[in-house]
């Protein structure tokens, strides 16, 4: 399987002391990688660094073999990277359709942007039913679908997804995970999934990376993280 994302020796943070320390990881194309770890381990910082919001002090990121050092944030979107931050960033005053169209505003291929929008409605039925509802009228699950849908309108190759289960009921979380699985299987989407909800993340992931104090302490298959009790006790605390 070809490698879509490669991270080498990535060190980054907000001040003098780095939050991420020499992080290495690889994500094959068409797979879901779960990024796990305790509060403050650096998971969100990893996604923010990958999407160009935090500048690394060392190391590099390669997308499809191409180094991303110095590439502007907006260019990263054009190269196929989409970031759905924690908290979702849905615009409360805009309708579902307007929010979704925001995701494809920059695209020159209008016909394909419209096609991508139709596909999002097909994938997320609740959004199709509520296309004229304002963002603030949506449930938590619908808002998460909208944030995901908006990212998908840009037709990303790599989706960086931060805590999609946050604040959602277990049933809704399971639906979101099933959608991710469907996207991977149908379209070959590659996902880097940050989650506190370890069981949910491992139910859908192919591989798992555990961060502790900004370092990768385990990188293995999701099956092994699920099934190896010793590993789970040592690194995931259950
Ligand atoms: P959580 O699940 O709590 O979001 P996390 O693993 O995603 O945890 P990060 O949010 O990446 O962790 O935070 C890692 C460390 O970086 C923490 O010590 C946090 O206080 C610090 N940090 C995060 N954002 C900032 C910021 N904007 N400025 C300064 N420090 C920050």
- Supply the CATH class of the largest domain: Alpha Beta
CATH architecture descriptor name of the largest domain? 3-Layer(aba) Sandwich
Unreliable stretches (pLDDT < 50, length at least 5) are none
Return the string of H and E elements.
Answer: EEEHEEHEHHHHEHEHEEHH
Percent helix = 25-40%
From the spread of the alpha carbons, the general shape counts as globular
Strand content: 25-35%
**Alpha-beta classification:** alpha/beta
Ligand catalogue: adenosine-5'-triphosphate
Number of domains: 2
Note down, in words, how this protein is organized.
This protein has 238 residues and is of the alpha/beta class. It has two domains: 3-80 and 156-236, Rossmann fold, CATH 3.40.50; 89-155, no CATH class. Helix 3 packs parallel to helix 6 (140-153), helix 4 (110-123) runs antiparallel to helix 6 (140-153) and helix 7 (170-187) runs parallel beside helix 8 (198-204). It contains ten helices and ten strands. The radius of gyration is 17 Å and the shape is globular. The longest helix has 18 residues, at 170-187. Strand 1 and strand 2 (20-28) form a beta hairpin. Helices cover 40% and strands 26% of the residues. The protein has a six-stranded mixed β-sheet with strand order 6-7-8-3-9-10, sandwiched between helices. Strands 2-1-4-5 form a four-stranded antiparallel β-sheet, with helices on one face. It has helices spanning 43-50, 73-78, 96-104, 110-123, 125-129, 140-153, 170-187, 198-204, 222-227, 229-236; strands at 3-12, 20-28, 32-36, 56-63, 66-67, 81-84, 158-162, 190-194, 207-212, 215-221. The structure holds adenosine-5'-triphosphate. Residues 14, 19, 37, 39-45, 196 line the site of adenosine-5'-triphosphate (ATP). Adenosine-5'-triphosphate binds next to helix 1.
